[in-house]
Design a protein that fits this description.
The protein is α/β, with parallel strands linked by helices. The chain has 2 domains: 231 residues, 3-Layer(aba) Sandwich (Rossmann fold), CATH 3.40.50.300; 176 residues, Rossmann fold (3-Layer(aba) Sandwich). The protein is built from 17 helices and 14 strands. Strands 3-4-2-5-6-1-7 form a 7-stranded parallel beta sheet, sandwiched between helices. Strands 10-11-9-12-13-8-14 form a 7-stranded parallel beta sheet, sandwiched between helices. Helix 12 links the parallel strand 10 and strand 11. Helix 9 runs parallel beside helix 17. The protein starts with 9 loop residues before the first helix and ends with a helix. 46% of the residues are buried. This is RNA helicase. Belongs to the DEAD box helicase family. Pfam families: DEAD, Helicase_C. InterPro entries: DEAD/DEAH_box_helicase_dom, DEAD/DEAH_RhlB, DEAD_box_RNA_helicase, Helicase_ATP-bd, Helicase_C-like, P-loop_NTPase, RNA-helicase_DEAD-box_CS, RNA_helicase_DEAD_Q_motif. It comes from Vibrio superstes NBRC 103154.
């Protein structure tokens, strides 16, 4: 199915052709017709499936169909994303799509001066892409108004819950006086996610292109059992022996990232860092060096687990297993994108065996184990037998998304959010 068959304007079709888009992906085939008809959308789609175009193109076409003059600091469409990297990527894609139209797009996120963003927003913008925290700062400064909002998108909504953005969403929704068409896209679903969707969406059409919480079938998975203290040695050995040219390595802590950078440097392997202590400009430079092949390895914390779009990335390594089993899906989603083959490697210490079991339960299959010669771990047979036989271990659950929400009064917060949404809907009908 081609994009020209979707009755998009010639300007959009021309831009998509220049982007190299030919046929619709499965999520686009299902979501675009429904969104064009004005339905709210609840979509389960893995990274790399073309979901940005799935929500952006219907919005762009509807904005073109109902042209309006922009008012000062107003926006007609809002896309919320959990990280700076993802917000920047979405805005760049939309900019490519609207190249031949008169529409405007802007991205606002932390790490950039507020004043420069205010200038972009001063005359109004058709589509605004924002992280929740920075958007609230602009709302407080009255440099953004959501009074005339027509479209609202939550991209990587599950990650927003993981990062504790539920209160930010509540604050943002309190500034919306209309009932916008709302679309929620997520790679994984949890009880909290389903609850948020029920509160935010109005009779949504559900779109699912893959089984929930699964990984792309273009990714080959492998686990290397190894003692924690020997992980850095084994990483250098695998990179050198297997001649890996481009490797994205995930760690859980900034301190681990800094340590690993020094260790790789000692082994003659050029690496760069991407974590929360780095300024946005430094993170962007690191990503550019990695993409251009100037650095062989990029070491990242989960701040980069979503939003990074690295074409043809061959290898993702979990140096540390993630705290949440769902984050395994997001991390390795950086490879095996757009039908290309990818390689997901996980280093698992004795203490991380339970996390591995939870990941395997989540994705629905056992990951192949390989013991690297010279790095065989200390005996863990007793632990494995206990995990797979004792009910207390077998039935143990991983942490759920947004664990901090419970301590912040999630029931009261959800009730307030429902009231906000209900009031918007009532007001829109009057």
């Amino acid at each position: 199915m081609s994009f020209s068959s979707q009755n998009f304007s010639p300007e959009i079709v021309k831009a998509l052709s220049e982007c190299g888009y030919e046929k619709l992906t499965p999520v686009q085939q299902k979501a675009i017709p429904l969104a064009r008809k004005g339905h709210d959308i609840l979509a389960n789609a893995q990274t790399g499936t073309g979901k940005t175009a799935a929500f952006a193109l219907p919005i762009i076409q509807q904005l073109l169909d109902k042209t309006k003059d922009n008012n000062h600091f107003q926006t007609r469409a809002l896309v919320l994303a959990p990280t700076r990297e993802l917000a920047a990527q979405i805005a760049q894609s939309i900019e490519d799509y609207i190249k031949y139209t008169s529409l405007s797009v802007a991205a606002i996120y932390g790490g950039v001066k507020m004043s420069s963003q205010v200038q972009k927003l001063k005359n109004g913008v058709d589509i605004l892409v924002a992280t929740p925290g920075r958007l609230i700062e602009h709302l407080d400064e009255k440099s953004v108004s959501l009074q005339n909002l027509e479209f609202l998108v939550f991209d990587e909504a599950d990650r927003m819950l993981d990062m504790g953005f539920i209160s930010s969403i509540e604050t943002i929704m309190s500034g919306v006086s209309t009932k916008p068409q709302t679309m929620l896209f997520s790679a994984t679903f949890s009880p909290q996610m389903n609850k948020l969707a029920a509160e935010m969406l109005n009779q949504p059409k559900r779109v699912s292109v893959t089984q929930e919480n699964v990984t792309a079938d273009t990714v080959a998975h492998v686990v290397y059992p190894v003692d924690q203290e020997r992980k850095n040695e084994m990483l250098s050995e695998l990179i050198g022996r297997k001649n890996w040219k481009q490797v994205l390595v995930f760690v859980n802590y900034k301190e681990t990232a800094n340590m690993l950078l020094k260790e790789l440097k000692l082994d003659g392997i050029k690496a760069v860092l991407c974590h929360g202590d780095k300024a946005q400009s430094a993170r962007r430079r690191a990503l550019d060096e990695f993409k251009e092949g100037k650095a062989r390895v990029m070491i990242a914390t989960d701040v980069a687990a979503r939003g990074l779009d690295i074409k043809g990335l061959p290898h993702v390594v979990n140096f540390d297993m993630p705290f949440l089993a769902e984050d395994y899906v997001h991390r390795i989603g950086r490879t095996g994108r757009a039908g290309q083959k990818g390689h997901a490697v996980s280093f698992v210490s004795r203490e991380e065996e339970l996390t591995l079991q939870q990941v395997e339960s989540l994705i629905g299959h056992t990951i192949r184990r390989v013991e690297q010669a010279g790095y065989e771990p200390k005996n863990r047979d007793a632990l494995l037998q206990k995990m797979h036989s004792k009910p207390a271990f077998k039935n143990r659950k991983t942490r759920t998304n947004n664990p901090s929400d419970a301590s912040q009064g999630s029931a009261e917060r959800s009730a307030r959010l429902r009231n906000i949404v209900r009031n918007k809907a009532t007001g829109a009908k009057k």
